[in-house]
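Exercise: predict the fold of this chain.
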Amino acid sequence: MKRIAAILLLCCTLFPVWSAQAEHVSPHKAQERVTDATDVMKTIMDTPDKGIPRALLRRAAAIAVFPGVVKAGFVLGGKYGRGVILRHDKQTNKWSPPAFFSIGAGSFGWQFGAQSTDLVLVIVSEKGLRSLIKQEFTLGGDASVAAGPVGRKAEANVDAGFKSAIYSYSRSRGLFVGISLEGAKINSLVDYNRAYYGKALSASDILMTGKAMAPKSALTLMMNLRRYAE
């Protein structure tokens, strides 16, 4: 038990280090992130009574999907993961190719254990999206974030009742709920962008200026998002 606790504590201590380090990324590894993100969204949206309201997706300026975020803790805790963000053109309902980002957060309190969780962020604010891609972005600091509404019953209230810039969701062990992610930091992953597109592209190049051509492995995710937002 002491050994497990020590390992978990070490992992939590290293979360900020992992998020800051550059790494060698293969094209296959980057493609896996996109495939995993596609699977996460399909699983969520195939359960309408528990999924993200389509009305919220229609309002989205972008969506962020972080599959398999590792959460661990023993008194000190943290979570870290890598995923993708796609921009949404509300006029045409087209979605951009994915740009790669990391998410990291720490916490303090009585906790023990480790698990893998899928995180989804629906970014409603265009201003929030632009801030996110320019610098290290802090949820709740640079833009308001709230637990997202879930299911068909929330559809009618999305336009009138939900005013946050970003809505956050979590799926773990088959459960999918809105959660609070205040204080979590999001950073662009240039090495993943380079591995996936074969050249150095910034998040702005991919999401804002249209300099990236979507690889075949991204097309399913982009088309599915368009269908979900109809």
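Check your answer against the key: Confidence is low (pLDDT under 50) at residues 1-21, 108-113.
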